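**Backbone geometry record:**
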Amino acid sequence: MAKIIDICGVKNSGKTTLISKLVEFYSSRGSRVAVIKHDGHDFECDVRGTDTRAFSDSGAYGVACFSGNRMFVHRYGTGETEEQLIAFFPEADIIFFEGLKNSTFNINQQEFPHPL
């Protein structure tokens, strides 16, 4: 079972920088690390002009693309829970959430007072 840590804060407070440093630290020591980012606004993750984007634009609620080295899954309006998102990374040793302010996985600043 992965260790789950949610790091949240106000915009431009260094969340991404902190998580990137933690990912680099733990990955360099052999841990399999995943990051799940919450975006309070809508975002666009697929590239215009690609086949996967054409499928989405045609009305597919979900599109997956994979190769021998990576995979990409994009789904619309599915409302996954934290647990369902965690299930996407069964091999992970550590999973960082960024920005889930109401998460049960939050770290209190007093518990983690020193930045890397």
Residues 3-98 form a domain with the Rossmann fold fold (CATH 3.40.50.300). The first strand starts at residue 3 and ends at 7.
